[in-house]
Amino acid sequence: xxxxxxxxxxxxxxxxxxxxxxxxxxxxxxxxxxxxxxxxxxxxxxxxxxxxxxxxxxxxxxxxxxxxxxxxxxxxxxxxxxxxxxxxxxxxxxxxxxxxxxxxxxxxxxxxxxxxxxxxxxxxxxxxxxxxxxxxxxxxxxxxxxxxxxxxxxxxxxxxxxxxxxxxxxxxxxxxxxxxxxxxxxxxxxxxxxxxxxxxxxxxxxxxxxxxxxx
Length: 215
Ligand code: E4P
What we know:
Elements: E1 2-6, H1 10-18, E2 22-26, H2 29-33, H3 40-50, E3 54-58, H4 64-77, E4 81-86, H5 89-100, E5 105-110, H6 113-121, E6 126-129, H7 131-136, H8 141-154, E7 160-163, H9 169-177, E8 182-185, H10 187-194, H11 197-213
Parallel strand pairs: 1-2, 1-8, 2-3, 3-4, 4-5, 5-6, 6-7, 7-8
Helix pairs in contact: 1-3, 4-5
This protein binds erythose-4-phosphate (E4P).
Residues 6, 26, 28, 108, 128, 130, 132-133, 164-165, 184 line the site of erythose-4-phosphate (E4P).
């Protein structure tokens, strides 16, 4: 499973990129809105120049023709832009049209397996099931990852599954075990992934013992 970061914050992207594990970035309108005073297109230019992998940028329109127009504009920003499109009938039309023009797409706000299958058949490069938001309403987001992975394997579908709406490190481990190709993770959770109290304790003990040797 590959790691994407789920943020529009450049400092977080730089820090995560420096770890050498980052394969891409996802943004959404809420994440962009947190970045006060920055133009969306300028920020996408900065991110795409920094990270060579896929950078998802979401369309705002809800109508197919307008989504297609927006998607084409976004795709002009850089070759590694992936156009993020919400899972609606209009969204599917836009995915098909953009796919036919060779533009990569990420279908977002997926909450059941049929939505994922439809998105894949419309040509989506990526499908994004939101596991945390399903957990929030008392459903099991990780079960959805397993279902989609199984369906895609049975039917030889090559759209990649991005486990999205990740809330904690166990989501990451369990999404990987269930066959997600990618997890898109907030920066604070990426930092949590690096940590274990026994790692800190071990470092402390090694340094203490080393100091006791003297020089
Ligand atoms: C990913 O593409 C989504 O933008 C993101 O994971 C949504 O996460 P949230 O449910 O924490 O807003």
